[in-house]
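User: Teach me something about this protein's shape.
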Amino acid sequence: MRQALTAAAAAAATLAAAHAAPAPLHVDQVAPGIYVHIGQHKDFEDGYDGDIANIGFVVGTDAVAVIDTGGSYAVGMALKQALRKVTQLPIRYVINTHGHPDHVFGNAAFVDADAAGTGAQPQLIGHAALPRTMALRGNAYLRNLHTQLGSAAEGSALVVPGVTVQDRLSLDLGHRTLVLTAWPVAHTNSDLTVFDAGTGTLWTGDLLFIERTPAIDGDIQGWLSAIDTLEKMPAVTTIPGHGPVTRDKHQALDRQRAYLATLLRDVRASIRHGTDMTATMATAAASERGRWRLFDVVNRRNVNLIYPALEWE
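Assistant: First, the predicted structure itself:
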């Protein structure tokens, strides 16, 4: 009887723990009113836990904007717990910088009845191309998430933005205006940046990777063009999609440009010389290997994406 009671108590404790509020994510205030959680450098295929992207929030005098929500409902809830430790202001906006699963699967945590603190629902905002991208890829992303996370994927869902940005959109948080800019195809087909002129803080989403190998899911030449434009944007503090926050945007963009330009050059050379894609995966941008995290796995995927496209040049 005692063993049965002990087992029942353990089961009850496990169930309670599963439904308990998650511990708040660690966030750093990198500029006044700007809070960021830095994701881990893990690959989707090895030890992925939904927490690899940089996510965070911006606090005005009237309201809050969340910028990216993490790779699962649980990560989104933990971000919301961190936010509520900072402020009880309503969450007016949830902004997705693009549609990759590590950035958007936490959306569901912010659309429950009390997400905004007042019973109002926040507006979900993304690039004009994002709803269609989510519709095309959503089922596959969700299957992959359940394979990767198992029971930890519970509650995760792709919640599609209802407000989209074709060019630019300004958001008022109260004595703080965020300017959202939609980009042509670059890292993906749905890249969005967020700029807070008051503090000079630029959220690049995955248009900028620091330390972690840049992953291509759009157009490499478009991305190189976007880097040239990002260079000209005034920013005191730059928050990349992955890697540490920087106050030297130019150095970070130059480092990323060097990788992408080297990859483009090497893949083009392989195609000219008749080297097949499999062999090219082992050689393209090899000179960059020691400068990036997760290089071997991400670089191979990049070659797999751009090689067929460049064959048609």
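Now, about its shape. The two ends are 75 Å apart (CA to CA). Residues 249-272 form the longest helix (24 residues). If you'd like, I can walk through any region in more detail.
User: That's plenty for now, thanks!
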